[in-house]
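thought: fold this chain, then report.
action: predict
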Amino acid sequence: MSSQSPKHIATKLVHAGRRSSEYHGVVNPPVLHASTILFDSLAELEKAGASAPGKVTYGRHGTPTRFLLEEAVAELEGGYGTLCVSSGVSAITNAILAFVKPGDHILITDSTYFPTRNLCNTFLKKFGVETEYYDPAIGGDIAGLIRDNTTLVWCESPGSLTFEMQDIPAIAKAAHARNVKVMLDNTWASPILCRPFELGADVSVQAGTKYIVGHSDVMLGTITTATEEDLLTIKKQVLISGDAVGPDDCYLAQRGLRTLAVRLKQHHESGLKVANWLQARPEVKRVLHPGLPDDPGHAIWKRDFSGACGLFSFVMQPVEKTQLANMVDHMELFGMGFSWGGFESLILPSDPTKIRTATKWDDDGQLVRLHIGLEDPDDLIADLEAGFERLKTA
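observation:
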């Protein structure tokens, strides 16, 4: 968009990554299926390079269907450029692998998404990369953990399952003083609730599967960088990995992107309504939602974010497994399943004790993660209330 274009994020969502004039006035970018791309001459073939931005050379390297989605995500996140890959885990893996080598030391927040931890504890460990997990509340004190061989600091704010907020500007200041890259998993905020590069991140990763797609039917990951140099570094890694995202998935992600602002507004409002209701329930010890005024991370959330999505957790009073099962097995509106970000509400009992090493999760209550979808929140509250009643009678 030109410098004269509107700056409001809802307007950008509608217009970013669209070039109707290049496609006979068609509103949505078309789906271009391709593996082989033909060249008119030997000279044109020899000039073709997979690293050339926007250049169609081979299907795995992308077509305009993907390039336009990448353009839109980069504009929305405020980065230099974006790469789309086949899943959120692929985005995490390729972003990290692009900047590490044997003998390196990396710092990962203890509240990270489990597949990130799994990558570090298995694949990276096997190839001589040392991972150290840190307290998500560490802030600028992370300077004390940075070594001469530290390559990157991985952040996730709010954290997976337990929703701790991180002071990204303080972490970035300490990391950049030692020439260490800062990467942020920005999935919870989507491209529009947090401006990762204004906070100091060098790389922002998202599971586009969640809110960008918005309909629980596509696997997609995005990697956005602050600089051209970092984008090219990651692009080389993605090409080596052989990762490719299909044009149909990119098309569906483009379509989902257009309604992201209105969907997130509803997720935000409904999520907070349910969270506030849960705070008053006798079965609930505490609600983990940074948008609540009494949440430990509320001040950072208010400073760095423009809203909340529909994902949060709550900790119940101690219950027997049979009671928990009687509650969650018979929900009418809340489905039980992995992922989130779609139009439907989800409920997922979880246990953070299994995935913590730098910090200790010692709450004896059952943690339950909710995704509040686009149903009427009063109906969702009624569904939860009925669940609590079943719990008590189990």
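thought: worth noting. The chain has two domains: 9-257, 261-393.
final: tokens above.
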